[in-house]
Specification:
This is Response regulator transcription factor. The chain is α/β, with parallel strands linked by helices. The chain is built from 13 helices and five strands. Helix 2 runs parallel beside helix 3, helix 3 runs parallel beside helix 5 and helix 5 packs across helix 7.
Length: 225
C-alpha cells in the first residue's frame, strides 16, 4: 500500500505563477495540491481548514505578506490545534533575503528562489516534509547571523540536556544529517534519531531547522563551530 501523498498548499498573488507551480507539483509522484491562496490572510485560513503538509509561500504579497502569514501559521494556539505538522517554504526572487531569514525564525523550513527548477522544487518539498531545511547549512547560518543584533541566554531547558544530547545538538546546529552525526559519534542512526527527538521535546522545538535557529538566537553556534 502506497504512502499518502504530500499535501501542498500554494500561496502567491500572481495567478499565472501559482497555476504554473500547481501543474508542476501535481505532476510529481507522491504529491498533490490541496488548495491555493492569493494572499497571506487566505493562506492562514487555508492552512487552518486544509491542514496541508507543505506550504509554498510567496514572501512578498499585498495586504499580508508571507513573513507575517508564516508567523500566524506557527502561532502557539494554531500549532496546538493541529492534528498534523505543517512545513512552510518561502518563495523569493532574492538570494539570502533578510525577509526569508525572518520567516525562518517564525517557523519556515527555508526558502527557494522563484526561478528554481521543477526537480529542485520537488526535492525541496520532500526535504521539508521530513523536517529538514531546504538550503545549505552555511547559507542558513549566514541568513540567521545577518539579522541578529541581540542574543538571549539559553532557556533553563537547555541546561537540562544530557552530555550526549548536547553533542547531538552541536552537530545538528552545524547542519549535519543523522547519518553524518552517527559517523561522528560512532553511534547508530536510530540512536541519533532518539537523541534528536529528545532535543525537540525538551527544547519545545518543531524540527531540526528550529534547532539551528535556537542555536543562533541563544549564542550557541560557537559551541557547534
Amino acid at each position: 500500500m502506497s504512502a499518502d501523498p504530500i499535501r501542498v498548499l500554494l500561496v502567491d498573488d500572481q495567478d499565472l505563477f501559482r497555476e504554473g507551480v500547481r501543474v508542476i507539483v501535481d505532476a510529481q509522484e507522491g504529491m498533490t495540491v490541496v488548495g491555493t491562496a492569493a494572499d497571506g490572510h487566505e493562506a492562514v485560513r487555508q492552512v487552518d481548514a486544509l491542514e496541508p503538509d507543505v506550504v509554498l509561500m510567496d514572501i512578498r504579497m499585498p495586504e499580508l505578506d508571507g513573513v507575517e502569514a508564516t508567523r500566524r501559521i506557527f502561532s502557539p494556539e494554531r500549532v496546538a490545534a493541529r492534528t498534523r505538522p505543517v512545513r512552510v517554504v518561502v518563495l523569493t526572487t532574492f538570494n539570502l533575503d533578510d525577509r526569508a531569514a525572518t520567516a525562518i525564525r517564525h517557523g519556515a523550513s527555508g526558502f527557494l528562489l522563484k526561478d528554481t527548477t521543477p526537480v529542485q522544487l520537488r526535492d525541496a518539498i520532500r526535504t521539508v516534509h521530513t523536517g529538514n531545511a531546504v538550503l545549505a547549512p552555511g547559507d542558513l547560518s549566514t541568513l540567521l547571523e545577518g539579522g541578529l543584533t541581540n542574543r538571549s541566554a539559553p532557556p533553563a531547558a537547555f541546561a537540562g540536556l544530557t552530555e550526549k544530547e548536547r553533542e547531538v545538538f552541536d552537530l545538528v546546529a552545524r547542519g549535519l544529517s543523522n547519518t553524518e552525526i552517527a559517523a561522528a559519534l560512532f553511534a547508530g542512526e536510530s540512536t541519533v534519531k532518539t537523541h534528536v527527538g529528545a532535543l525537540l521535546r525538551k527544547l519545545d522545538l518543531r524540527d531540526r531547522v528550529q534547532i539551528v535557529v535556537y542555536a543562533h538566537e541563544h549564542g550557541l553556534v560557537e559551541r557547534a563551530g
